[in-house]
Amino acid sequence: MALKKPTSTLEDHTGYWLRYVSNHVSHAFARKVEAEGVTVAEWVILREMLDTGAANPSLLADKVGLTRGAVSKLVERLARKKLAVRSSSEGDRRYQTVELTAAGKRLVPVLAQLADENDREFFGHLKPIERTKLENLLRDIVRRHGWKDLPVD
Question: Which residues on adjacent β-strands are paired with residue 85?
Fold first, then answer.
């Protein structure tokens, strides 16, 4: 009679440990950026807008891997917070560009510093070679699966 393999536990799975760490890291970061008045999803758009400059929402959607509708909603929230502004084309009012306001440009480095601090809090104990190895392993998983969308939740 064949021996029955015992049912694996939660802790037997690498995904469990990835999720465990990810939840703690991302929740801590969410609390930090929310104290500055934005969500993690808004932070992602703000950070991309800093690099992209004035752009149409569909370009931002492509860059961050979100739907155009999701980006439009995020940009609208950022506009209400006076962190971004929309502009319509004179020739075609359907064509819009969005860009950061001065307040948005000032906020992004503050949020980036929070992200840096969050990384140090959770990964600062790792030796540089260990951190590089961990990041390379995670990047390899992303590359092998062809994932393009950015983590926003």
Answer: 99
Per-residue burial over 60-76, b if 16 or more Cβ lie within 10 Å, else e, is bbebbebeeebbbebbe
Output the pLDDT for position 149: 74
Higher pLDDT, 9 or 149: 9
* CATH classification for the domain delimited by 24-145, as one of 3.40.50.740, 3.40.50.720, 2.170.130.30, 1.10.10.10: 1.10.10.10
153 vs 144: CA distance, rounded Å: 22
Query: What does pLDDT average to over the chain?
Result: 92
- pTM value? 0.86
Q: What pLDDT, in 10s, does the model give residues 19-69?
A: 999 999 999 999 999 999 999 999 999 999 999 999 999 999 999 888 889
User: Six-digit token pair at 114?
Assistant: 């929070």
